[in-house]
Write a structure and sequence with these properties.
heterodimer; A: Ubiquitin-like (UB roll); B: mainly alpha; 3-stranded antiparallel β-sheet; 5 strands; globular
């Protein structure tokens, strides 16, 4: 069966969608079709990819207007008619399907990295931390992130308001912060950063990030909301603030 | 250099998108259901000005109190554990004294925020659909920064499930004997649904254990881990609890009003009774 792919060609200054026809084969994913087009019809078509197994997070694009990994989107799951493939919107377009995602790496650098607590005497003998599975389950969920940045792309705070990149780190870095903050052996306090610099308050819990995550990380409920609650503990809960003043305990 | 919003690869303008699915169905559903509930609950509260006959059925040996008025704390109510706590107030509905607490919980609930931000504020109306504003600060600025007080509505709302369960228990008695009536079952389901919704609250999840970084470091922490897991179980389907409990509370009120209007013929006794 022939399928038409309507693919964006061009740069941010000048570009348009162009149609390409490919033979759809059993099990074919959108990235396969793009490679076929690259090989046979448009050798200068730019797209980023690496593992083709949904683990490197390179091939993010918008397929029929929805953010997806092209390597994990089977052609036969898409409705009949032309398949529109465009670049992700949130990051500056370089060419065709390729965008510049380097802003994300700059954000990551400004987050205080894992800051280990001092070993207990028992841990010092072994030279490693003792951790129970129940303490690390929450953190391990966030470690599944493949940094495809689909969540950053669909987050409307960044997607529709590019100027917010100055004040909001986006869902990918909310779960990075949650991962570090919830770590039982981490000693750093990032809650002031969470409020002031990461801008967690900009998130209005519309859950687009969770819906789009290819690793099924429950970004909003398990990462962002717990961070908001920790921020409320520190900055917005008057009773807790009085309690802290009186007792000195957090 | 500042990034520009326009790109030839993406449509620009209110409600513009390349999505081909029915992205409008969720906000439309929300507008209809939340809008209908809002109108109905205002009407249900307003009718209470006429007196307890409008919301409290005490006839044919039955005792059914509308959930919008539970617990009834004014002297408009002849019976109830807190009836008459507030006296001399006749110009406002008794619902005014209680309804704002569970409504406040819903209004600031993390699940409902998704629903109404999408449906009523179009921020955004659906994922990857363009929105109609030039600046956005979300819950970092007034008035939405006040959503951070959600936990206080939780503390107040935690008082309600026991009262609703007590009301359901009274509903299971006809002429002083145990009986299963249709309204009693509806009221019990309402109490359980509201309990399930309240126990899945994100603020409760944080309160009981989520704020800890180590669940195994003390016996207290281990106990809180158990509570956290329990709340997490409810929390996983918080949205479903939210919708079903919302619709059910309206249906419960409507059924009790129907019994007040049409009599017990529409409230069959399924089991027991004198």
């Amino acid at each position: 069966m022939k399928r038409t792919l309507t693919i964006f060609r061009g740069t941010k200054e000048n570009g348009r969608y162009e149609d390409y026809e490919v033979e759809q084969q059993e099990g074919m994913v959108v990235l396969d079709a793009i490679h076929r087009i690259q090989a046979e019809q448009a050798t200068d078509l730019a797209c980023r990819w690496n593992c083709k197994a949904g683990k490197c997070g390179s091939c993010s694009a918008e397929i029929n207007g929805k953010a997806k990994l092209t390597c994990m989107t089977r052609m036969d799951t898409l409705p009949d008619g032309p398949i529109r493939v465009g670049p992700v919107k949130t990051f500056p377009l370089q060419k065709d399907l390729v965008t510049d995602v380097s802003w994300n790496y700059r954000v990551k650098k400004r987050i205080t990295p894992f800051t280990p607590k001092t070993y207990t005497p028992e841990e010092a003998k072994k030279g490693e931390f003792n951790m129970k599975q129940e303490d690390i389950d929450r953190v391990q969920e966030f470690r599944k992130c493949i940094e495809c940045f689909l969540c950053q792309n669909v987050c409307h705070v960044l997607r529709d308001f590019p100027e917010n990149k100055e004040v909001f780190d986006g869902p990918r870095y909310m779960i990075r912060l949650a991962e570090l903050e919830m770590h039982p052996k981490d000693d750093a306090d990032r809650i002031p950063y969470v409020k002031e610099t990461s801008g967690v308050g900009h998130c209005n819990i519309t859950r687009c990030c969770t819906e789009v995550c290819p690793e099924n990380i429950v970004i909003t409920d398990n990462g962002i909301i717990p961070l908001k609650e920790r921020m409320s503990d520190r900055y917005y809960d008057p009773l807790r603030m009085i309690w802290r003043k009186l007792t000195g305990k957090s | 250099m500042a990034e520009t919003r326009s790109s030839p690869a993406h449509p620009r303008g209110f409600f513009q998108t390349f999505r081909k699915d029915a992205w409008w169905s969720y906000p439309l559903f929300t507008v209809i259901v939340l809008g209908a509930f809002g109108v109905y609950s205002l009407w249900a509260a307003y009718t209470g000005i006429a007196g307890a006959e409008a919301f409290h059925y005490l006839d044919h040996g039955r005792d059914y109190l509308s959930p919008f008025y539970s617990p009834c704390i004014t002297d408009a109510c002849a019976e109830g554990p807190l009836a008459g706590t507030i006296t001399g107030v006749t110009v406002v509905t008794p619902a005014l004294f209680v309804m704002w607490m569970p409504l406040g919980l819903r209004a600031t609930c993390y699940y409902y925020r998704k629903a109404y931000y999408r449906a009523f504020f179009a921020s955004p109306v659906a994922c990857s659909v363009d929105e109609p504003r030039k600046k956005y600060s979300g819950e970092a600025a007034f008035p939405f920064v006040l959503q951070n007080l959600h936990r206080y509505f939780l503390y107040l709302a935690l008082l309600f499930p026991p009262f609703l369960l007590y009301d359901a228990w009274l509903a299971f008695q006809v002429n002083g004997s145990f009986a299963v009536t249709a309204v009693a079952l509806v009221m019990l389901a309402n109490a359980l649904l509201l309990t399930g919704f309240t126990f899945g609250c994100h603020a409760l999840r944080h309160w009981v254990g989520g704020r800890l970084n180590c669940f195994s470091c003390s016996n207290v922490a281990k106990g809180r881990y158990g509570l956290w897991r329990g709340v997490t179980w409810f929390n996983k389907h918080h949205g479903k609890w939210a919708w079903v409990s919302l619709v059910w509370v309206g249906l419960t009120d409507a059924y009790i009003r129907a019994v007040i209007h049409f009599g017990p013929s529409i409230d069959p006794i399924l089991f027991g009774g004198a």
